[in-house]
Write a structure and sequence with these properties.
Strand order of the largest sheet of chain B: 8-9-10-12-11
Largest sheet of chain A: 6 strands, mixed
Order of helices and strands of chain A: HEEEEHEEHEEEEHEEH
Helix content of chain B: 10-25%
Shape of chain B: flat
Shape of chain A: elongated
Structural class of chain B: alpha+beta
Number of strands of chain B: 16
Strand content of chain A: 35-45%
Oligomer: heterotrimer
Largest interface: B-C, 33 and 37 residues
Chains: A alpha+beta (263), B alpha+beta (243), C alpha+beta (215)
Largest sheet of chain B: 5 strands, mixed, barrel
Radius of gyration of chain A: 20 Å
Order of helices and strands of chain B: EEEEEEEEEEHHEEEEHHEEHH
Number of strands of chain A: 12
Strand content of chain B: 25-35%
Distance between the termini of chain B: 21 Å
Structural class of chain A: alpha+beta
Number of helices of chain A: 5
Number of helices of chain B: 6
Chain lengths: 263, 243, 215
């Protein structure tokens, strides 16, 4: 379904942003209300439900024992998948993941992987043969703009919430102790901030209306020490060097605020 | 015999009355019983029982005035989204008469218009028109979307509610029967009107709303609002729609 | 059991249901324009349903995407709800129902139908009655109501049923297993009684969305 934004709406949002205001009353650097609940799905070894404004994502973590990648035989595997459920938006169709869904999963995956959330080396059971594979499934339930930041925040929360069964090696066999579980070995807590460029200005955490009229978008993944672990530009128009630098600066401060939600 | 009271909240399948009564909007006859087909409030007038829905899509009706957005331009017409399962078309002849002209010179995709529903056929193809006072293209302003069944509540008895909002915010406000509202004024006032309209939509089914709207305007505008000289009746105006 | 109506912002109607270990989210879009001309009907709306299980909803992760079981359940769910909806009021349109199983513990198809019914009402779609569903079965030689996942695996029969409670008309009936005629009668009655109780919870959930009854 094509979503054509009325010219009136495009103009009114843009004019407000040029004056430093936003349609929902926020400032350019304000996030919407955020809520984060963990352990919501008992059958999942880790889970979280994140809400950013009306955007809502359910994240589930399921570990499985499998083979490591050939080039990294002593390291566990993170697999990220995303479903843009048709119930989340009239623009999401049922079927295999489309380009938006695939982009979301891959950006989140890169942010978590390069952000070193999981200490993957600790997930090795038998080098070259058996490692823990952590499946992270993003289930988008309601879409009101800015899936990336919500997805990363929810994913980190879900991983922090995850307990995996103890795996022991007995005579070359892997024995899983269902009775005992340990926390997933967590190293870092990277988070992501997304900005939309509208009317020459950058606004953080774009709402759906803002996303529909934006010229460009930049998402920045950052670790606790302020180093960058992922970036993704979106949108049809270009960004300047200065704009990207500005986004990185603001991300530095905002990820600290977002991290508070993980406590 | 009637089994419910005026203004009761009912759900689909609820038995409302027996066949002493007539079916109105939102009800149907099942054997010798009258039942609700919707989630809504019971409205009893004489022996006619209706249910006013709390949630509903807009179904176009001849004579309605609606606000629509141009989504496509065809050979001799524009297609419009009128916030309904059914889209509408506006014939070029309505604007250009018999002359042939480039349609997008008049209206382009993304333009928002105030139109009249000229005709609706049996398969719900909707013909729109621009002939009439005040109809035409909107310039500037903002759009607010509310549930179509709440339009009468927003307008108020004899326009009392909407006029109160217009006067206090000094905005032009046009309410389409399809649940689309256009507001134009000072940007801060537009946002005040938007907040108030959203609150009315949220609480359309409750009583005491007029006072709360007045208080909200007072708070948001930071000033006294004159009490209406006449008492504004609290009754929910019944929409003038046939079953 | 917990039912909540109106839990999503974008969808026209929605409902969340928890029963046993099941967590189900149902959403409705419609009536809305149908672009697939092949299935469009000039005289009434069509109903399309998609039942889906989240990968993390079960013990062993389920690969995303529809499998044959989901396709069948999608069909019987649409069939169970269709008789209740006044489809003739909306020619040339579609009513799309999405059911997402967030956590599964036996009886998800019944939970899905029950939640979808609330979502349809929440969306303002006119219906003859709410549709409500639950399952009876036979486990350990006894006819019982609402089998859990384990009982279903080990049990002798599973009987999901959906009804329109006011008339008692049956819109879904499946049986898997082995029952005598008498056992079937007993199971069916149990299921219908169970449905009527759940119907009360559906009504309450819908009314709670709007607060106290208007005075």
């Amino acid at each position: 379904m094509v979503n054509i934004v009325p010219e009136i709406t495009r103009k009114s949002i843009t004019e407000l942003i040029k004056k430093g205001e936003r349609a929902d009353g926020r400032s350019p650097n304000d996030y919407r209300d955020i809520s984060l609940e963990v352990g919501v799905i008992e059958k999942a070894e880790g889970s979280a439900r994140v809400k950013m404004g009306n955007t809502q994502i359910m994240i589930g973590i399921k570990p499985q024992i499998g083979e490591p990648f050939a080039d990294t035989p002593n390291v566990g595997v993170l697999m990220t998948n995303s479903e843009l459920l048709p119930m989340a938006s009239p623009t999401f169709e049922p079927g295999p993941p489309d380009e938006r869904s695939v982009e979301l999963a891959r950006v989140v995956d890169r942010c978590l992987r390069e952000g070193e959330v999981i200490d993957l080396e600790k997930l090795c059971i038998i080098e070259g043969e058996k490692v823990w594979m952590i499946f992270l499934d993003l289930h988008v339930l309601d879409y009101d703009g800015n899936l990336m930041d919500a997805a990363v925040l929810g994913s980190v929360a879900a991983l922090l919430n995850t307990k995996i069964p103890v795996a022991k090696v007995e005579e070359d066999n892997v024995v899983i102790d269902e009775e005992n579980s340990v926390e997933l070995p967590i190293k870092e807590k990277p988070l992501m901030c997304t900005f939309a460029k509208i009317g020459g200005e950058l606004v953080i955490d774009p709402s759906l209306d803002e996303e529909n009229i934006m010229d460009a978008r930049i998402s920045i993944g950052m670790r606790e020490d302020g180093s960058l672990c992922a970036m993704q530009k979106g949108g049809e128009m270009p960004l300047t060097n200065e704009e990207i630098k500005e986004a990185i600066n603001i991300t530095s401060q905002k990820t600290k605020e977002l991290r508070e939600h993980l406590k | 015999m009637i089994f419910v009271e005026d203004k009761n909240l009912v759900v689909p399948g609820d038995v409302l009355a027996d066949d002493e009564y007539h079916t109105g909007r939102g009800t149907f006859r099942d054997g010798n019983k009258i039942c609700s087909s919707l989630v809504g409030l019971v409205a009893v007038r004489d022996k006619k029982i209706s249910v006013i829905p709390l949630q509903s899509k807009y179904i176009p009706k001849r004579g309605d005035v609606v606000i629509g957005e141009i989504t496509d331009i065809r050979f001799s017409m524009w297609n419009l989204d009128i916030n309904s399962p059914y889209s509408g078309f506006l014939p070029a002849s309505d604007v250009f008469g018999k002359e042939k002209r480039d349609l997008n010179k008049a209206f382009d995709v993304g333009d928002v218009l105030f139109l009249r529903v000229v005709d609706v056929d049996e398969v719900k193809k909707v013909k729109l028109g621009l002939k009439g006072r005040g109809l035409g293209k909107f310039r500037g302003g903002i759009l607010i979307y509310i549930t179509p069944t709440k339009v009468p509540r927003l307008i108020g008895k004899k326009g009392s509610m909407i006029n109160m909002i217009k006067d206090e915010t000094k905005c032009d406000i046009i309410v389409g029967q399809n649940g689309v509202v256009w507001v134009k004024g000072e940007p801060e006032m537009e946002r005040v009107a938007e907040k108030v309209i959203n609150m009315i939509e949220d609480q359309a089914h409750t009583s005491g709303l007029t006072d709360r709207v007045r208080n909200m305007l007072y708070e948001l505008l930071g000033k006294e609002i004159e009490e209406e000289k006449e008492d504004v009746e609290e009754e929910v105006p019944e929409p003038d729609i046939e079953e | 059991m917990k039912i909540e109506a109106g839990v999503l912002e974008r969808a026209d109607g929605s409902a969340y249901l928890e029963i046993g270990g099941n967590k189900v989210l149902a959403a409705v879009y419609g009536p809305r324009e149908l672009h697939v001309r092949r299935i469009m009907r000039p005289d009434m709306a069509v109903i399309r349903c998609r039942y889906n299980m989240a990968p993390f909803s079960v013990g062993d992760r389920k690969r995303p995407g529809p499998d044959r079981r989901s396709v069948e359940i999608s069909k019987i769910t649409a069939d169970a709800l269709r008789p209740a909806v006044f489809l003739e009021k909306f020619p040339r349109s579609t009513i799309d129902i999405f059911i997402e199983i967030l956590e599964a513990e036996g009886g998800t198809r019944c939970a899905g139908i029950t939640a979808a019914s609330v979502a349809l009402a929440d969306a303002g779609i006119p219906m003859r009655d709410l549709v409500v569903s639950c399952a009876a079965g036979k486990a350990n030689g006894n006819v019982v109501l609402d089998l859990s996942e384990n009982e279903d695996k080990e049990g002798e029969a599973d009987l999901p049923v959906a009804i329109m409670p006011r008339s008692g008309e049956i819109t879904l009936l499946q049986m898997d297993g082995h029952l005598t005629s008498e056992e079937f009668d007993k199971a069916l009655n149990l299921a219908v009684e169970g449905c009527k109780k759940i119907n009360e919870a559906q009504k309450e959930a819908i009314k709670n969305r709007y607060g106290e009854e208007n005075g």
